[in-house]
Amino acid sequence: MTNDFLTQSSQRKTDQVIIIVLLIIPFLTIAFPAYSQDMPLTELQTKALILNKKGQYSEAVKVAEEALKVTEEEFGSDHPKTAASMSILGLLYFSQGKYSNTEPLYMQALKINEEALGKDHPDVATDLDNLALLFQAQGRYSESIPLYKRALEIKEKAFGPDHLTAVTTMNNLAALYYSQGMYDEAEPLFKQVLAIREKTPGTDLDKLTISLNILALVYQAQGKYAEAERLLKKALALNEKAYGQYNPAYATSLNNLAGLYKLQRKYSRSGQLYKHALEIRIKVLGPDHPDVATSLSNLATLYYNQGKYTMAEELYKRALTIQEKTLEPGHQDIATLLNNLVTLYTAQGRHSMAKHYHDRLQSTWDSALKEEPNTISDTRKATQSENLWKGPVYSSKFSRTFHRSDCVELQISSDEIIDFQSREHAIRDGAIPCPACKP
User: Fold this and answer.
1) 365 and 376 in contact (C-beta within 8 Å)?
2) What DSSP assignment string belongs to 151-192?
3) Which tens digits make up the pLDDT trace of 52-79?
């Protein structure tokens, strides 16, 4: 979700924001434990993972807990196979967003493997990867970075600097740097990932185009538009050669290239590519797919930039209809579109319509803000209620940290801004308060 308008922190205080969804290929993945490569999964472990994949979460956890009990009884509490069961149970909790349950399991698995296998064993590197991903998901970036670095060092020592085993860690560390606006740190790592994938025989084409798209976004964030354009065109050519134009990956690269042209105010070319991406997604994914809504929203924002308000309104409403049919109530993407419509109508002076969609936006946020049981203690609630920031807060679409508008740490591209009505809305959406400005 991005904003094309705000370029100074002072502007963020007064200007309304049109936010768009710039769909990129996801590049943060859960590292699957290395033990799955070295020792076969037990029947119970396999069953737990299958149940989790089917969405039968409580049943999956029960089976994983049983698997852990069995391995502890058979091998002891300090055996690597017990650590493997702990990691699987932690993986299930992680996938369900139960981070407080995940951490002690990951920590104990790491401790067991360090003592049993040695601190430079590849399985230890995977434990470090998993723990780093957990901390990253919680916004604990300063704790996550050294874990990734140590995992990468172990893998490079064990397998060599250009081995595919190191790519996942390298990629996730680079993504973390990128999410924090540390583009100079992210760039060489993404370049190395791309170089390894390009020279490795049989590299999966999808992974290669992912690397091209991600590095292009890094270049775009740095203002290196020519380099970004070159990589996106290369990704398009590879996809077209392998699959033809009518595939989702080609549409994603088109979408990203259109976004690059929009940044450069090449509106005519940008519009052509957004329309082509939309055409592909409708044909391949169907007219009611969320990615179709993304294309509609992006094209609508382009029209808004050009002052074509009627055309923008029609596309925003089409996108909203799709999202309300396909996404859960209170979803952030629905809130984004409602926010865009509020801004659009305000810009036209159509205040009654702006109020209508603002009320719907408030209702959406209120729905998302319903308190979940056992998520925060009464003591913590009382502490957080004191001296809290009352105004809107801002974050990057790639970061879980939110800030006051004048925070010195809010060093992100204007095309990545997300604004929240309040800190409560940001927290409910999974964002973490900035330790510097303490909103």
Assistant:
1) no
2) HHHHHHHHH-TT-THHHHHHHHHHHHHHHTT-HHHHHHHHHH
3) 888 888 999 999 999 999 999 999 999 9
